[in-house]
Amino acid sequence: MSKFLTNGQRIMDWLVKCARWVGFLIFYLFDSFLLGLATDMVKHGQPGQVNQFIGLTLIVAALVLGVITWRYQRQLAANNPRHFGKQPLNAKRLWQLLGLFALMMAVQFTWNYLIHIHVLSSPVNQALIDKQVVQLPLWNLAYSILFAPVIEELIFRGIFLNYFFKKDTRLMNFLGVLISGTIFGALHVPSLSMTWLMYSTLGWILGFTYLHFRDIRYNMALHFLNNAMSLL
């Protein structure tokens, strides 16, 4: 009976973690939706409503950042078998980070080349972001380059891996990187395609980065550089 109760508790804990993680993701996507509404209002000539929605977006963004950062820190304080924390930057880590950035740029270059020679079509997600940047450049660039890398790394790498793959074994690390990157790709492209594979590959690189450096700030920096090179 006690074994049955223990297994039931584990399942319940897992379901609660799933609900929390999905909740964090919905919270973030809702904030992105608000910025999208503000962007759409620009073309309709509604500056007053644009400013209102930008203000609301900033308020929700601050709440999202505060809640998710608090949850991540609480998570590590309660259970941190991989010893994630602040790892000081040195020459070796800098070169490794630059090497991973070069790998991400190689993925992006290959993807853009295949689009250029008409092997692949331009992804709808990227086209939408480019359109929004044209309509409302300052806020969309700031959101995509500065805010999104921080929140997405906390959600997809930090919280996700510690919730569902916290054991520090080769199998758990491999599965954690594989699944988190796959979900990351599906969020950007919700269908199996070469574009989904490209986004997933970027997610796998970021997952490896988190487990390699054991400091999520390296992930944020790498994600920031990738988004900046894609949009500027």
From TrEMBL:
Residue ranges crossing the lipid bilayer per the database entry: 21-38, 50-73, 94-115, 141-164, 171-190, 196-213
Top-level taxon of the source organism: Bacteria
InterPro entries the record matches: CAAX_protease, Rce1/LyrA-like_dom
Enzyme Commission number(s): 3.4.-.-
GO molecular function, one term: hydrolase activity
Pfam family, one: Rce1-like
Keyword annotations: Hydrolase, Membrane, Transmembrane, Transmembrane helix
EC main group: hydrolase
Residues annotated as domain CAAX prenyl protease 2/Lysostaphin resistance protein A-like: 136-229
Family designation: Belongs to the UPF0177 family.
Protein name, per record: CPBP family intramembrane glutamic endopeptidase
